Amino acid sequence: MLMIGLPLSKADITRSGIGETSVRITESVREDDVYIINTGCGAVNTALMELCIMIHACKIASAKRITAVIPLFPYSRQDKKDKSRAPITAKLVANMIQKAGCDHVILYAEPSAILYIRTNFNVEDVVIVSPDAGGAKRATSIADRLGVDFALFHKERKKANEVSRMVLVGHVRDKIAILVDDMADTCGTLCLAAQHLAEAGVSKVYAIVTHGILSGNALKTVDESALEKLIVTNTLPQSENQAACKKIEVIDIGVVLGEVIRRSHYGESVSKLFHEVPY
């Protein structure tokens, strides 16, 4: 919380022998504007229960307003009913957080990527690329804010999680291609897209991803790929991944989250950050 000049409040969090989480806020929050920062990583179910219990503890301690700052929302990939009898778990999690007593939720990291691109690249040489059609809206949003072109890949799948063919749509030759995505898990699609971009004549290929899950052989795949760098934010801990793969670079989202919290507290527009990145 050094970004906004405040110390972290103190709380005692313990777990019983059977795994139950106990939370006690060790200072008064009566009539305070409380921001609880958590992210869906590691033992995600434990982290989620800890978040809900902490929200409830602040609620019954008479906090004026409670905002959960969750850069990586738990179960966010289970956000639709994709087959019969399948749950919409992201909706369930949202309902749990609301019922616990949360007034607002902040999910925000994208402006950090915009700031990184402006700082580290000559934007006139950049083209923003989405690795799939589903990310086209994200790619066009970033491209519009930077004032650059965009391209995308259309994926044809033989079966789930197995891409048979990727078709590039857009002009990328002699450009610095920056792939953008929300999550990088096994990195198979990202690295395949990077290979296709290299074959299409780009000068260099980078990837910027909000959440670097990097499971399985992801680090090896990235290391052997055409990517110059895989840039991820620190919504998840990345120190071990950086030590294992020199292509991993981390963006600190603290500046953006601090600005979001400050604007929220003082009643200023948060949506302006979609167009104005704090320097």
Q: Please, could you describe this protein's structure?
A:
By secondary structure, this protein is α/β, with parallel strands linked by helices. It contains eight helices and twelve strands. It has helices at residues 44-60, 89-100, 110-120, 136-146, 188-199, 218-223, 239-244, 254-265, and strands at residues 11-15, 21-25, 33-37, 65-69, 104-106, 126-130, 149-159, 162-169, 176-184, 204-212, 229-233, 248-251. A seven-stranded mixed sheet has the order 8-7-6-9-10-11-12. It has a three-stranded parallel sheet with strand order 3-4-5, sandwiched between helices. Strand 9 (176-184), helix 5 and strand 10 form a beta-alpha-beta unit. Helix 1 runs parallel beside helix 2 (89-100). It is globular and about 60 Å long. The chain starts with 10 loop residues before the first strand and ends in a 14-residue tail after the last helix. The mean pLDDT is 90.
Brief summary:
By secondary structure, the chain is of the alpha/beta class. The protein contains 8 helices and 12 strands.
Structure characteristics:
279 residues; single chain; alpha/beta
Walk me through the topology:
Elements: E1 11-15, E2 21-25, E3 33-37, H1 44-60, E4 65-69, H2 89-100, E5 104-106, H3 110-120, E6 126-130, H4 136-146, E7 149-159, E8 162-169, E9 176-184, H5 188-199, E10 204-212, H6 218-223, E11 229-233, H7 239-244, E12 248-251, H8 254-265
Parallel strand pairs: 3-4, 4-5, 6-7, 6-9, 9-10, 10-11, 11-12
Antiparallel strand pairs: 1-2, 7-8
Helix pairs in contact: 1-2
